[in-house]
Specification:
Length: about 600
């Protein structure tokens, strides 16, 4: 339930960020502050004839004029120009390769950006599921043009990746970090920069439970949980050189400060200790808004950054490689392969607890001060379908700043609630997708493993994710195409899965649209693909028919169908009545079939 609280907190923060950014834009000098003066002119020339033109309600024309005016009136000092040009050469919005490898790039004074980052192993290890995960939330704020403040929060609560002495051992990790980066030198002639980055952190972690022994107990074999609260920190000195507009090299000497002994039952050093390290990195801009990232870091001791299944501590080099893509000035994504498990400057040097494995890292960056992708407004019928289908989603995304809410219930007792917020015209974050499957009859042993793991009695599944719009008729493409992914777990079994889909929506004419949605389910229990088909058939302006079919692609293929009728009170508010034999409307439920058809309803809101 703590995760639900965090998600609610993040949703309120994102709403605040959006409103705050808009207020700042409205109140920025040079944007809307107009001073009117009466001007007397002695002009003997006859007045020119006024030519009237039609812009067909194209607001982008006026936006472009406004932007040009803003750029024309904005002047920078020579030092500002030097800073911004240097940052631009090495990826303007890339402030770090890893938390312990900061770049000499800064945000403009008063600007900020937020990042959601997800690190995970490819396999579940002793915990099972999709992997041992360490999600984090990062907030960057430009204190000045040469100073950056960063706040980190991360939490991991899986068991240790490997079994310890024949036991699955609980291991919880929570981290709050505050970092400050200050520029010391920026030589524009040689594109040479140096900064200093101190970090102060609060690290809470625990090990063991009533059923397992703590890894910090070296004296006896008694089970029990050990909890620790530590103040830790780090200090780094990033030194960078821009060899060209597309290529930047980074050299980072640093040190992290971690405890070397924890608990009263430790005989010898049983934790990491302090570590000097030497890091290096490369940033290569392959194309505009697209770059490659590489790093390699060697810990020098005297402490450690790794322990194995026998609790032997040692030092392992840390690597990462991946790519970053600014989809538009507001939204950026990064994907990496790394063996760094920690998500803060002080813990980023640590490998996954009890092993040294390659992990995947997926990051989403949101910059509310930057310009969004311009899309024409949806007409009423397209807005009515942007709330999605029942078991087959569509590729449309509500406009920036819009909240999407869906509430679902069926006669067997299955219920789900969904809350999504459009950070951009092309990206929606799914902050809350929660509910429970009930009254399911699979007819025998079919899908019994999936049922017992995710759909059993007392299940409560909560998920979060995102949806990215790639193509749209709103920007002169022929049809809508979106990518959607979500992660989450069953609160009862503590097992999770990854769900992804590639959604295509086609508008045939004024009364017909249809969707084709390939889907993929990945978990430690089973993995398989599927595909969904659906149509939106307008019977009247406020009434539409929605037939849907889903089939999984596996040995025991499931084929389920749904028939829904949607009544639109307005383009933003509608009610669905449906009849379906899908297991449910949430991700995995869309690909599974039950024996009995059930009646259900769903309320849809765009706020």
């Amino acid at each position: 339930m703590k995760l639900i609280f965090y998600l609610f907190l993040i949703s309120q923060l994102l709403n605040f960020i959006g409103v705050f950014a808009e207020k700042v834009r409205e109140g920025s000098p040079g944007l809307n502050s107009i001073k009117w003066e009466k001007v007397k002119e002695n002009n003997s020339e006859p007045e020119k004839k006024i030519i009237w033109r039609s812009y067909k309600n194209d607001e982008s024309y006026f936006e472009n004029k406004k932007q040009k005016s803003s750029v024309k009136n904005r002047t920078y000092s020579s030092s500002e120009e030097k800073i911004f040009e240097s940052a631009k050469k090495s990826g303007f919005f890339t402030t770090e390769i890893e938390p312990f490898l900061p770049l000499n790039n800064f945000l403009k004074h008063g600007n900020f950006q937020t990042s959601v980052r997800w690190k995970s192993s490819f396999q579940g290890g002793a915990s099972g599921g999709t992997g041992q995960q360490n999600p984090s939330f990062v907030f960057d704020y430009g204190i000045s043009d040469t100073a950056l403040m960063t706040i980190y929060f991360s939490e991991a609560d899986d068991n240790l990746y490997n079994v310890i002495d024949g036991q699955k051992v609980n291991y919880h990790w929570q981290n709050y970090a505050f970092s400050f980066k200050k520029e010391l030198l920026n030589n524009n002639e040689n594109s040479f920069g140096i900064s200093i980055v101190p970090t102060f952190e609060y690290w809470r972690h625990s090990s063991g439970s009533n059923d397992s022994k703590s890894i910090y107990n070296q004296q006896d074999s008694l089970n029990g949980k050990d909890k620790f609260d530590n103040l830790i920190g780090s200090l780094s000195l990033p030194i960078s050189k821009n060899f060209s507009e597309k290529f930047t090299a980074l050299f980072v000497p640093g040190i992290n400060f971690l405890p070397e002994k924890l608990g009263s039952k430790g005989i010898d050093k049983n934790s990491y200790g302090n570590n000097f390290y030497i890091g290096s990195g490369l940033v290569f801009d392959v194309a505009k808004d697209f770059n490659l990232l590489f790093s390699y870091t060697t810990p020098l001791g005297p402490g450690y950054n790794h322990f194995d299944k026998d609790l032997n501590h040692s030092r392992k080099s840390i690597y990462s490689f991946g790519l970053g893509w600014d989809i538009n000035p507001q939204i950026g994504i990064e994907g990496k392969i790394t063996n760094s498990y920690g998500s803060s400057p002080s813990t980023g040097l640590l490998t996954i607890p009890s092993d040294n494995l390659p992990l995947y890292s997926a990051n989403i960056i949101y910059r509310p001060f930057e310009k969004d992708t311009y899309l024409t407004l949806l007409n009423q019928r397209d807005k009515s379908i942007s709330n999605g289908g029942i078991t087959v989603n569509n590729a449309l995304i509500p406009k920036a700043g819009t909240s999407q809410v869906n509430l679902n219930y069926d006669e067997a007792g299955t219920f789900f609630g969904f809350y999504g917020y459009s950070l951009s015209n092309i990206f929606q974050v799914e902050l809350l997708n929660i509910g429970s499957f009930d009254g399911l009859n699979f007819g025998g042993d079919k899908n019994i493993n999936l049922y017992s793991t995710y759909l059993s009695e007392n299940n409560l599944n909560f998920r979060l994710g995102g949806k990215l719009l790639l193509f749209s008729p709103q920007k002169n493409d022929h049809f809508w195409v979106s990518l959607r992914s979500s992660v989450g777990r069953n609160n009862d079994t503590n097992q999770g899965y990854l769900f992804s889909e590639f959604i295509n929506t086609f508008r045939v004419n004024n009364w017909l649209a249809f969707n084709v949605s390939p889907k993929y389910f990945f978990s430690g229990v089973d993995s398989f693909g599927g595909i969904g088909f659906s149509s939106y058939i307008n019977l009247f302006d406020n009434l539409m028919l929605i037939p849907e079919i889903n089939t999984s692609i596996k040995n025991n293929s499931d084929l389920n169908s749904t028939l829904a009728i949607r009544y639109c009170f307005s383009p933003e508010k509608s009610l669905d009545l449906y009849y379906s034999n899908a297991a449910g409307v949430q991700d995995i439920g869309q690909l599974l079939k039950v024996e009995d058809y059930r009646l259900g309803f769903r309320f849809n809101f765009l706020l």
